[in-house]
């Protein structure tokens, strides 16, 4: 394998940007204050094209921009900018690959398998967060930044000021899905991020779906899902609730938190036992109604017989008072005897009807109580990882998320694997590996990345996230095999992304990095 260097001129073959590796995400300036939440909130994640404005929380920069910070004029001095908080640059350790980044990535199983494959090469892994990882990458302190967001324009420019260029690999993608119970309806299949935020945020007064929009149904609104200790909850808190450092208190006060997604599913759909047993109402219900009708009829006949008893006794007493003849009084006595006998026969019929209904009534009341609980859960909405939703998609009904197209027309995006991979679905995040071209010259780094990409499908399946298609995996593997395949990444129209051949011909080439006195690793 030839040494990887930046090809020049026509020798540089630029791969056309695929939808899966569409890293052209909306990026804005962020404060270089060492906080993962700050830079992630200001720049990270998937670009919102929702006219409601899906933007992460922004924080006030705390570092000066007077030529010493990332946001100032340091790039014009021709000297490398080193973040003093991160220490001095160091030379790479032979046979060691250093990785740092966020949480919930696929790097842990990749390290495990690579250790089995390549004895003698060590892969270190830190979890300092996306922002700190990019800071370390741009001074050459690590080889790979493992992130759930692309590198920002400011971070990329910092790398170049330090004499480094970068390439980003995508290994998978994930998303948060909002869903209600399958085969139910609240008046819409599509929500804007403003509506989602209004329903889930702390201080929300939404108690009915109709309060989220004039066309929505009059159904009670309740929300639940993971805590911020889980990746889905943390991502939702940052990018929808706009909290720089998400905490559980960012959610509405009656938000139903869950440690496991099964709990959220039961909150949304009801318990499996309730749903299974409530189906028995289809035949228990008619039987209960029939037996109830029979008991009601029996009680009616008994009531008529009881009235006859009362009438016969009253007539008998009247005959005694009137001193009727013995023959007349004998007739009155016979009537009373018949009335009591008929009433006795009918109370036996009532008791038989009761005995017949009683076991069915116990079952029916249990089933109706279960059905009532299911009905009460009609308006429950939950947050799920896409992998979990895909497993239970027959029981969950997902909401599309509204975005605006190029003509500013609303468009609803369904959380499919394709829209999650290419970032069209607003509540998605791409799992990326960002590497400097200098680190790509190291055989151990290329070997680890090759192993990572080759096994990314199984890692994604194991983690329940969306794997990249084989064609895109092979395309990225080709970057590692031949320097002629290495694409160019850079800034176009204020966005950092892969540059395709057409853009390469029409876009002015980026200036080379300024010379540095102490080049990064």
Q: Could you walk me through the main structural features you see in this protein, from its secondary elements to its overall organization?
A:
This protein has 521 residues and is of the alpha/beta class. It contains 16 helices and 15 strands. A hairpin with a 2-residue loop joins strand 14 and strand 15. Helix 3 packs parallel to helix 4 (153-161), helix 8 (272-278) crosses helix 10 and helix 9 runs antiparallel to helix 10.
Summarize this, please?
This protein is α/β, with parallel strands linked by helices and 521 residues long. The protein is 40% helix and 15% strand.
Major sheet, described briefly? 10 strands, mixed
**Category from helices, strands and their pairing:** alpha/beta
Average pLDDT: 81
Number of domains: 3
Approximately how much helix is present in the residues? 40-55%
Q: Give the strand content.
A: 15-25%
Provide the CATH superfamily of the largest domain: Periplasmic binding protein-like II
Shape estimate: rod-shaped
Q: Stretches where pLDDT falls below 50 for ≥5 residues?
A: 1-88, 515-521
Gyration radius (Cα, Å) is 36 Å
The number of helical segments is 16
Looking at the chains present, what oligomeric state does this protein adopt? single chain
Count of distinct strands: 15
